[in-house]
């Protein structure tokens, strides 16, 4: 079988867009480049102490950075140099970054929201981590960007995706016409199409939630978890429980074999823990594009009105029928 690289695939699909001038394609290419550089560092994370302590200098005389800070810098650099993006909202920055002050990005038509390295509690443990990105198109390119333009509904995303740094590194993305997955072939340094037209099964056998928080969950979530654990041969219960604690890894498994992932509101996180703009919206976009569903409990994730950059939401996401079951439990408790 002949290989198709991410670059070749992006060019092939470019004409899918009514406004295609190659800008979105170039933006996706820039994100792919940042992902490869981050992958290189994530892969040698265990060597950090050998090459030099964080805060010290390594043998090349470069300061060792925490990986999430490093990942953030790589994305911002790639987006700045690429010139297609005029504004970045990142988990690593309290305020957004207006790139339009750089001459190359002055006319950038896109806004990018990123979680540069998600699952940070897993970085030092050799457990999969990921990067998540979400892309919006500017509404008015003839005036300075405003927060209103940045805070668009998730349903207005023009593209979204994630990179998983796992046993192999993959980039999965959608431009609103299905979902495609690419695996990094380290021997040629290219992401190659390995999972075309990904579809999430309508049902699954796995539920994914931090059960340590069980006592703090709302009642309908507690009831759903008990439902997952009850025996029923017709619906293949009890379901299996899997929780990595890296949303990208948990969602990647859910996308491939089906299942459900839940991060509900708790007493410690009354709004939910995960962030709407750069965690929930992009992953909801991907899962919906693959035939799944994503809700906060009350409403569709992609229809939540964003009011600030680091807004949090509860999330229930995954196989369509499983998410609908949670909605039934929710409706029953109203
Ligand atoms: P982070 O952005 O600080 O890494 O936090 C997000 C992560 C998700 O990847 C994961 O699903 C969740 O936090 C795990 O949280 P918890 O440890 O509370 O279960
Ligand atoms: Mg995160």
TrEMBL record:
EC number: 3.1.3.11
The keyword Nuclease belongs to this UniProt entry's keyword annotation: no
Sequence positions that bind Mg(2+) 2: 115, 118, 279
Binding site for substrate: 118-121, 210, 243, 273
Known cofactor(s): Mg(2+)
GO molecular function ontology, one term from the record: magnesium ion binding
Subcellular location as annotated: Cytoplasm
Catalysed reactions, semicolon-separated: beta-D-fructose 1,6-bisphosphate + H2O = beta-D-fructose 6-phosphate + phosphate
InterPro entries reported for this sequence: FBPase_C_dom, FBPase_class-1, FBPase_N, FBPtase, Fructose_bisphosphatase_AS
Binding residue positions for Mg(2+) 1: 91, 115, 117
Keyword Transmembrane applies: no
Pathway entry: Carbohydrate biosynthesis; Calvin cycle
Keywords: Carbohydrate metabolism, Cytoplasm, Hydrolase, Magnesium, Metal-binding
Enzyme class: hydrolase
One example of a Gene Ontology biological process annotation: fructose 6-phosphate metabolic process
SUPFAM superfamilies named in the record: Carbohydrate phosphatase
Any single Gene Ontology cellular-component annotation: cytosol
Family annotation (NCBIfam families): PRK09293.1-1, PRK09293.1-3
Known partners and oligomeric status: Homotetramer.
Family as reported in the entry's similarity comment: Belongs to the FBPase class 1 family.
Name of the protein in question: Fructose-1,6-bisphosphatase class 1
Natural source organism: Sphingobacterium psychroaquaticum
Gene coding for it: fbp
């Amino acid at each position: 079988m002949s290989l198709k690289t991410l670059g070749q695939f992006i060019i092939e699909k470019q004409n899918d867009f009514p406004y295609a001038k190659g800008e979105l394609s170039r933006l996706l290419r820039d994100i792919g480049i940042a992902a490869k550089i981050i992958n290189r560092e994530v892969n040698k994370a265990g060597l950090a102490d050998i090459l030099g302590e964080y805060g010290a200098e390594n043998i090349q005389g470069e300061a060792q950075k925490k990986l999430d800070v490093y990942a953030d810098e790589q994305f911002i650099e790639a987006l700045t140099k690429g010139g297609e993006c005029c504004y970045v909202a990142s988990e690593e920055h309290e305020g957004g970054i207006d790139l339009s002050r750089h001459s190359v990005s002055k006319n950038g038509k896109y806004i990018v929201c990123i979680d540069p390295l998600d699952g940070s509690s897993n970085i030092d443990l050799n457990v999969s981590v990921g990067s998540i990105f979400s892309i919006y198109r500017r509404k008015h390119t003839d005036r300075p960007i405003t927060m209103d333009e940045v805070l668009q509904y998730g349903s207005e995303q023009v593209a979204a995706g994630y990179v998983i740094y796992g046993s192999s590194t993959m980039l999965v993305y959608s431009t609103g016409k299905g979902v495609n997955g690419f695996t990094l072939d380290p021997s040629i340094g290219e992401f190659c199409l390995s999972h075309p037209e990904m579809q999430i099964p309508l049902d699954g056998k796995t539920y994914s939630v931090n059960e340590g928080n069980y006592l703090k969950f709302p009642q309908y979530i507690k009831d759903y978890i008990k439902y997952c654990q009850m025996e029923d041969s017709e619906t293949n219960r009890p379901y299996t429980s899997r929780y990595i604690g890296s949303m990208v890894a948990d969602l990647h498994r859910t996308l491939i074999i089906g299942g459900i992932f839940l991060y509900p509101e708790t007493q410690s996180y009354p709004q939910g823990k995960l962030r709407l703009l750069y965690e929930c919206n992009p992953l909801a976009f991907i899962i919906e594009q693959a035939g799944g569903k994503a809700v906060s409990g009350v409403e569709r994730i992609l229809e939540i009105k964003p009011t600030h950059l680091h807004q949090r939401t509860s999330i229930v996401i995954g196989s369509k029928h499983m998410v609908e079951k949670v909605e039934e439990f929710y409706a029953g408790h109203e």
